Every structure is written in structure tokens, then in C-alpha cells.
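pasting input
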Amino acid sequence: MIEALLQALINGVIAGTILAVPALGFTAIFAVLNYPNFAIGALATVGAYAGWAGNTALGLPMVAALALAFAATAVAGLAVQWVAVKPLESAGALMMAIASLAAGLVLENALRFTFGNDLRGYDLPLLRDWRFGEFRVGPQQVQNFALALAAMALLWAFLRYSRTGRAMRAVADNRDLALLRGVDPVRVAAVTVAVGAGLAGMGGMLIGLDTSVDPLVGNRLILSIFAAAVLGGLGSIPGAVAGAIAIGVAEELAVLAFNPAYRLVVGFVVILAVLTLRPAGLFGARAS
Amino acid sequence: MTALTVEGLLGGYAAADHVVKGVSLAVAPGELVCVIGPNGAGKSTVLKLLTGLLRPRGGRVALDGRDVTGLPPRAVLEAGMVLVPQERNVFGTLTVEENLAMGCFLDARRARSRMAAVMDRFPLLAERRRQLARTMSGGQRQILAMGQALMSEPRVLLLDEPTAGLSPKAATDLFGLVRATAASGVAVLMVEQNALQAMEISDRALVLVDGRNAHEGPAPALARDPAIRRLFLGGRGEGRMDATGTARETSP
């Protein structure tokens, strides 16, 4: 039993780290643009297909395919923002959230129309799991874990050291003051959407690498992404990472106790519990 | 020549509702002018209209003779005028150093040299350069907010109630820094609730009532004017003024 728990813990940390990538995108968009972008699931699917196409049709290695997934999803995210969300900006965050949900459905069905419902797999060699005593870890899992960590490190460096990253943090912290200090809010919003959507695309591809690619790859993620962001505190970057790892571990542990079909319950329970007990989340200050 | 000239400024939060109903003022380089008045007189709204946070409905704003009326905040900043808002005037989740860098956002190449100059003027900021702004005291945050504003080497510095919420000691210290900033050649326009102390350190004062100029003149003379003292300054015949500028005598 202890071995099963530890194995679930290892799997959960890896799954949570990968989940953190799209959760970071979701929370970054929320922090700067002040609305929950529910197209993030469909954008993750765009990334999964873009990475898959880059890998299988263009023969790109994983890192290059991941960069392609980021770029393609950044463009798709900007299209969602400009076509569906921005025209409703004056109507408030709820309308923007609904617009993003609708745009996500359009994207998902456009992918279904183009690629069909078949499961697609990356062009990867089949490798035996590494065994450490009673525990086993797949080489692909480890590679995905490393790629997710690298993506997060790049994001951290961008936010910490670049002028644009600092402007994004400034707008998220205090939009009016950022405006007074000369920050162009339209440009910062565009960069945030591109980076946030790009991260969702990378997350979609990493999850596609772990499983397979189909039009619902992102749809299955959206609740976990939202739960991770809510748990960490909407708009909090470290919160999104901590929340995602907690959700990843909780989902893996839940599988030990329940039928895997009920894994999604974890997300719902976490959202309900956080909103009831600590609406600001673990690291958030917004609701306090 | 004045650094900032405002003539007949009109505006407010809604198109038909003018909070500011014709304010005129001028500030010369190196001069400190305070704007005082009762709550609701439109003092802070004047600053928002000057910096592009609100769009004026009439009047003219000029910086060094150049018309900047109705320009967006970024253009006003580029023209050399910077505002320190009353509340939330620093980025709480950024460090002191990052806050200062944001003050020089439009000219990032000069950030390093400007930061050295600002830290030289405010040594407290150098000591706390890696501290998150939200963990600083109110007085320290006000100093950081001023330092951030001075990063862009403004010709005109606008301060919105810089001593609000500060202890008397911190307020006195901050007024000293404001005075020193004006003495360095910057034109300073300061909105203040703390009327007596503000007039003590200012060169000139403007009393706003109901969105209009009510009294103006050299600050020491205004501070001695019995009518103004009755309206604002308390003491014998403790007086307060309501939003229409009517003095209401209260018992001492």
C-alpha cells in the first residue's frame, strides 16, 4: 500500500508539474486582463495538434515541436482575444469569460473538422520504464517533466528580468499606476495573451506526449487547470505552480481510492472547498 | 516662464457632471504650490485631469508652453509631468529596485544611472533595494513612490495627499523631502488635506472650493489670513468647511 501511495505521489508530482504549464498561462491572463480565459482548454488542444503535426509531418525534434506548439497557440490565443473577447471588454469579466468559452468551442470543433476524432500519437520510440526498486518511471514522463520545468524556468526569467515581463507584473499589480508610468496596456495585454496561450499550447503538447492527441485533450484539462489556479490564488504565478502540483497529486491519489472515471471530482471538490474556506487561494491577495 | 500652466480646467467623472469647474493655476520651476480645500472640492480630480487619467471637458494645460491638454498618461509623462497618486502608489509585489525601474520605463537605458541618483537622494531606498514594496511602512512607501516618480526626471511633479495616513513624524519628514525636491528645480504641485503644514512649506497656496479657485496667494500670507485660518486651520474657533466652502463653526 505504501508503495502504491509513493508511486501515486511520484506520478502526481510529474502530472502536476506538467499541468502547471497551462495553469500558469491561465493565471497570467487572469492577472493582467482580469478575466478567466476558458478557451485555455481548446488552446491546449491547438498546441497538442501543432506539436504533433510538427513532430510527425515535419519531423521536428521534441524541443522544436514544443516551440512550434507555443507559437501556433500564441497566434490562436491572440485571434480568440481580438475576435471574440476584446469586443466585449466593456461588458465586464463575465461576458469576456463566456466569449472565451464560446471561442474555445469553435476552436475545438474546427480541429475536429480538420483532423477528425481519431487518436493521434507522436512519432516516439517505445521505451521500457525505468525501475527503482518497487517504483517505475517512464523515460517519456521524465522528459516531459524536464520540459515543463524548463518552460517554467524560462517564464520565470522572462517575468523577472525582461522589461516586458516586469511591465506585465506591474500591470497585474496596479494597472492605473502602470499606465501613469508609461506602460502601454494594449501591448502588455497582447504579450500576456500570446505567452499565456503559448504556455497552454505547450501544456497541451506535453499531455499529448504522455497520452495521445484528440480534439478533447484540452477539454479534459480545463477543470484541473481552473482548480489549480483557484487553489493557488487566481492571478498568482507561484500559486498556479503549487496549485497544479497539489491537484496532480490529489488526482493520482484519488485514483487509488475511486474509479478513475471519477478523477474529475477532485477538481470540483477543490474549487468548492477553496471558494468556501479561503476564496483568495493559497497565494492570492485579490479576494482578501 | 512657468513649468505648468492651467487655465479654466473643466472636467469630472461623467460628461455632464463637472467636479472641476474652471481651475487655473501656474507653477514655476523650483516652486512648491499646494492645493487645499474641503473634501469634494475637486483637488484630486484636478490631478487626474492634468495627467490624462480623466479627459478634460474644457480649459488648457501647458507644460513649458506646450499644450498637453487631454493627452493620454504616457504622452503627459513623456512631456515631463508625473503624478504620485494618493493610494496604491507603488507596485506592492515588486521590489524597491523594480519599482524604481518602472519609474524609468520609457527610457530603460538610463534606468541604472537614474536609480543611482535617486538612491543617493533617498538612502533608505538603497538600503532596502531588494525588499518587496508591500512589506514597507506607509512612510517608506511614500518615499519609494516619490523616488519612482523622480526616476523620469520630471519637470513637474504632482503629489496627491502624500502625507495621508502617515504619523506626524513621518509626515514632517516627507514634507522635508518634498521641499528639497522643489529646491532641486522641479515644479511641485501638491494636493494636501493637512492644510496648515502644507502651507508652512509651500511657496504659494491655492484654495479650491466647489471645483473653482476660491483663494490664492503666497502660502505664508494665506496661512496668516484669519478667514482662511477660520476655514481650515482649527485652533480657536475650530472651523471646518463643507463641500460648498461654507464654514461651520464648532465648539473648541
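fyi The radius of gyration of chain A is 18 Å.
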